[in-house]
Amino acid sequence: MTTKTQLTAASLAGALATALALVATNASAGPVAPRPSMDKCYGVAMKGQNDCAAGAGTTCAGTSKADYQRNRWKYVAKGTCESITTPEGQGSLSSS
Amino acid sequence: MPTRSPTLEGEFARALRDPDLPLPGGVIAHTSLRPQKRFAVYRNNVMVGLIGALEARFPATKRIVGADFFTASARIFASAHPPHSPLMMTYGDAFPDFLATFEPAAELPYLADVARLEAARTRAYHAADARPLEPAALAGVEPEALAGLRFVLHPSVEIVASAFPVVAIWAMNGGESEFAELTDWRGEDALISRPMLDVEVRRMPAGARTFLQALGAGQPLGAAAEAALASSPEFDLTINLAALLGGGLAIAVINEALEDS
Predict the structure, then answer these.
(1) pLDDT along chain A (96 residues), means of 10
(2) Contact A42 B56 (CB under 8 A)
(3) ipTM value > 0.85
(4) B184 phi and psi, to 5 degrees?
């Protein structure tokens, strides 16, 4: 006696028939039809990443070693992590 | 030149990543024989460009930790992981693994999985186009042949398995849903796909990951369903078949019984 569950042809056929009926009647289960989307803009924006004038911080103003310091930042997450409730409580990344 | 070029390029590349290194030999400008500042501007722009590429690819990750934390993390990553391709849309495949071992982010154990989901979304977006299998293609299959059917999955399909509610956290921080308290803190498997033009992210039901991975590995339908049932007694074959066919996750079906006869 094996613990492996054997699926009969009949149960497979039943599952498939129900699934096909679900797909046919439930339009929302299908792929979203083509439409302009945020992802398109995302794709376009990626092209400009290396552009010198891509946005704040990317100007060609003289920036030297002083602007490139790697370890002088505070280990504090100021994003939305504090609004995420975990079993251990609120998320936070205070450096304390 | 051919003998000198690799050395020059190597020196130039190293100096781009390490501001403590001297100006690479041979770099001159018409205003200066040793254009330290000009090279520093160039070096900074390279770094800012790489950070910008990560920001564009990981917006929810950035939102979770905030701009300062993200920029600083991205800078440390970029210093150690120069791009291997000029295509910036592929930059950062290793960023999630970096975050997983990045000590300042250790208090956010779910962060790396959110980044994995975001990386998978970009790959799905740029995956090859393929027309999803029409559900009707299965309507006429003999019941005896069903267990032996094999499926070719859509090239955009990826799964991110997580011990955390990664779909919910990503959705809230990716602008897909409102912020709300996560009362049901349990692991979620994320399914990422792009059957048509839009990248879709779904939370996978119990056993679905095993089912889809088995199909993706070329196992026949019967064996995949049995493996999924073994992994989770709650596995529902009907719902999973509906997702496979209705969600455009498969692009072809192979009926070997038919081909042999």
Answers:
(1) 65 93 69 40 33 41 42 68 72 47
(2) yes
(3) no
(4) -110, 85
